[in-house]
């Protein structure tokens, strides 16, 4: 901090010793552009700063400053630390702690709850699907058994006897075949619409729930957590530089400001 503060002190002393240069090259051109009385602005160039009254005021302020410094130095007041709550770093730490708590607390809990609910929903859907598959297998077995029962409704004991019986009783054989076809249609429709439909709907619902859950998790939960981390990482460094100060930043600012003033005073005021 010694270099930038030395440059600042040198600029202040130079402006105090040679105020006419700043007035002529900087203050007067600016006031002449905005005031309605150019003579009042030009009057500043003839003002004498080093009068007896001005010197008395400077000496008085210097004495007061030396007295305050002496009292503070003898009473060890210069080592007194300003309460941390009055500094911006304290409130930045509070804000960062709150954001971290928000990321590690409610949003972590919400993320875990979403994952748990998704797992439970997936297990329930899988359980229902397995139950429907078992039910479907039992229906198929029952359908085959019913077909065998229909075939036993005739007195025939073999295929040849069955053909002979069908030739002798065509009406009964047609009725048995018709009833078996009706029963088969019912079983097929129930299997296709209810059993298979339920399984397919569970699969589609699980996919939709998974997509929405994943989108909400990435965009909301993870998005907020990543935003908090980005804010703390990106703006925390800027805030640290503005609070603690970096010698290179101050030096660069002073040099750039001095160059801009010099350019305006030498070139822009012509």
Distance between the termini: 36 Å
Q: What general outline do the C-alpha atoms trace? A: elongated
| Helix/sheet category | mainly alpha
The portion of residues forming beta strands comes to under 5%
Largest sheet: none
Q: Can you count the beta strands?
A: 0
User: What's the domain count?
Assistant: 2
Q: What count of helical segments does DSSP give?
A: 9
Q: What's the SSE blueprint?
A:
Blueprint (H helix, E strand, L loop, with lengths): L1 H16 L1 H16 L3 H6 L8 H23 L13 H17 L1 H46 L7 H10 L1 H75 L2 H22 L2
Helix pairs in contact: 1-2, 1-9, 5-6, 5-8, 6-8, 7-8
Summarize the structure.
The chain has helices at 2-17, 19-34, 38-43, 52-74, 88-104, 106-151, 159-168, 170-244, 247-268. The radius of gyration is 47 Å and the shape is elongated. It is mainly α and 270 residues long.
Question: Can you tell me about this structure?
Answer:
This protein folds into 2 domains: 2-83 and 246-268, no CATH class; 99-239. 86% of the residues lie in helices and 0% in strands. It has helices spanning 2-17, 19-34, 38-43, 52-74, 88-104, 106-151, 159-168, 170-244, 247-268. It is elongated and about 145 Å long. The mean pLDDT is 68.
List keywords for this structure.
2 domains
């Amino acid at each position: 901090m010694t270099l930038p503060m030395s440059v600042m002190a040198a600029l202040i002393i130079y402006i105090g010793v040679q105020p006419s240069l700043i007035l002529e090259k900087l203050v007067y051109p600016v006031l002449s552009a905005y005031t309605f009385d150019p003579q009042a602005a030009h009057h500043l160039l003839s003002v004498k700063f080093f009068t007896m009254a001005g010197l008395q005021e400077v000496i008085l302020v210097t004495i007061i400053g030396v007295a305050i410094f002496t009292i503070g130095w003898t009473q060890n007041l210069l080592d007194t630390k300003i309460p941390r709550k009055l500094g911006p770093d304290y409130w930045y730490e509070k804000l960062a702690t709150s954001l971290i708590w928000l990321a590690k607390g409610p949003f972590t809990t919400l993320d875990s709850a979403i994952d748990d609910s998704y797992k439970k929903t997936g297990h329930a859907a899988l359980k229902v699907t397995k139950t429907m598959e078992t039910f479907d297998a039992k229906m198929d077995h029952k359908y085959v058994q019913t077909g065998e029962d229909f075939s036993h409704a005739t007195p025939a004991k073999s295929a040849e006897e069955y053909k002979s019986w069908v030739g002798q009783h065509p009406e009964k054989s047609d009725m048995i075949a018709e009833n078996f076809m009706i029963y088969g249609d019912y079983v097929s429709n129930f299997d296709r619409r209810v059993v298979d439909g339920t399984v397919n709907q569970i699969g589609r619902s699980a996919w939709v729930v998974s997509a929405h859950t994943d989108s909400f998790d990435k965009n909301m939960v993870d998005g907020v957590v990543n935003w908090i981390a980005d804010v703390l990482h990106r703006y925390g460094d800027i805030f640290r530089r503005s609070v603690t100060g970096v010698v290179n930043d101050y030096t660069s600012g002073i040099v750039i400001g001095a160059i801009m003033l010099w350019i305006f005073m030498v070139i822009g005021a012509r």
